[in-house]
């Protein structure tokens, strides 16, 4: 029988302190260093190590002074994205891998959204479709991106999947570092063709969701992501070739 790995005093104290923080409203005074020594039944040095660990996790904030102490808090999505992004960089993760993962997560989210209450789906579909139909083919990439973010929020809200959204955002944020896009190149036939293709793909996604058919919604989501990623890679390739030509 495999031996169970023994947890250190700091790990055990961290488990207890994490539970205490999460059981209390954000901003609650958890206690002073002295009180935590008693409450966690550990040494002062262990409390300090544990506090530093939970600070890095975004669950604890230390305030000095007369009204100071250890206060419970919650990590923000930005903090988590930054931490995970740094970890992905350390692992030398390929931006193409995170792009593929983001697509898989988007498909899951759209499929889940298609199973929401029909009245909620219809409200989102009508609202998004109006914005899509009013999008001019000469709209800048930034304008399209703004609308895409709005659609993402609507879909994740329907899907009731904050965890999937978080991991999706982490992957997208990391991928964006590897597919940086130039400010120019928002005019011409290629860009107009992209705007039209993306708009039609998103309308297809909306209609598939409205039908309540999660399989169809998944296929439509896969297609809309392909249109989006192809354009990002195209823009990135253009930027790279221009830099190479200029000797940068």
UniProtKB/TrEMBL annotation:
<keyword id="KW-0804">Transcription</keyword>
<keyword id="KW-0238">DNA-binding</keyword>
<feature type="domain" description="HTH gntR-type">
    <location>
        <begin position="7"/>
        <end position="74"/>
    </location>
</feature>
<dbReference type="InterPro" id="IPR000524">
    <property type="entry name" value="Tscrpt_reg_HTH_GntR"/>
</dbReference>
<protein>
    <recommendedName>
        <fullName>HTH gntR-type domain-containing protein</fullName>
    </recommendedName>
</protein>
<keyword id="KW-0805">Transcription regulation</keyword>
<dbReference type="InterPro" id="IPR036388">
    <property type="entry name" value="WH-like_DNA-bd_sf"/>
</dbReference>
<dbReference type="InterPro" id="IPR036390">
    <property type="entry name" value="WH_DNA-bd_sf"/>
</dbReference>
């Amino acid at each position: 029988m495999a031996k169970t790995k023994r947890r250190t005093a700091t790990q055990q104290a961290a488990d207890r302190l994490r539970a205490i923080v999460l059981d209390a409203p954000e901003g609650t005074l958890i206690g002073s260093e002295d009180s935590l020594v008693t409450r966690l039944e550990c040494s002062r040095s262990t409390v300090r190590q544990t506090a530093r660990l939970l600070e890095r996790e975004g669950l604890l904030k230390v305030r000095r002074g007369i009204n100071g102490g250890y206060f419970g808090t919650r990590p923000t999505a930005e903090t988590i994205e930054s931490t995970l992004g740094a970890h992905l960089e350390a692992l030398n993760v390929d931006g193409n891998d995170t792009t593929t993962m983001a697509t898989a997560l988007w498909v899951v989210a759209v499929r889940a959204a298609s199973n929401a209450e029909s009245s909620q789906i219809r409200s989102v579909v009508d609202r998004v479709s109006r914005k899509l139909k009013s999008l001019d083919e000469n709209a800048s990439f930034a304008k399209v991106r703004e609308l895409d973010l709005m659609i993402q929020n609507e879909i994740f809200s329907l899907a009731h999947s904050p965890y999937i959204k978080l991991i999706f955002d982490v992957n997208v944020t990391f991928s964006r570092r590897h597919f940086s896009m130039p400010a120019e190149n928002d005019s011409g036939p290629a860009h107009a063709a992209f705007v039209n293709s993306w708009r039609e793909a998103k309308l297809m996604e909306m209609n598939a969701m409205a039908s309540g058919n999660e399989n169809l919604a998944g296929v439509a989501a896969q297609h809309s992501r392909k249109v989006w990623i192809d354009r990002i890679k195209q823009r990135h390739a253009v930027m790279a070739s221009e830099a190479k030509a200029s000797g940068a």
